[in-house]
Amino acid sequence: MAMQTRGPRSGGPGGAGPQGGKKKFFYRRKRVCKFCVEKLEYIDYKDVKMLQQFIPERGKILPRRISGTCALHQRKLQNAIKRARIAALLPFATD
Amino acid sequence: MRTYEVLFILSPQVPEEEATALVAEFKKVGESTGAKLSHEDAWGRRRLAYPIQKFNEGIYHLFVFESDGSLAELDRRMKNSDRILRHMIVRTDLDHKRAEKLAKRNPKKERVRPAPAFTPSEPVSEMPSGETVPAE
Question: Which ipTM score applies to this complex?
Answer without folding.
Answer: 0.71
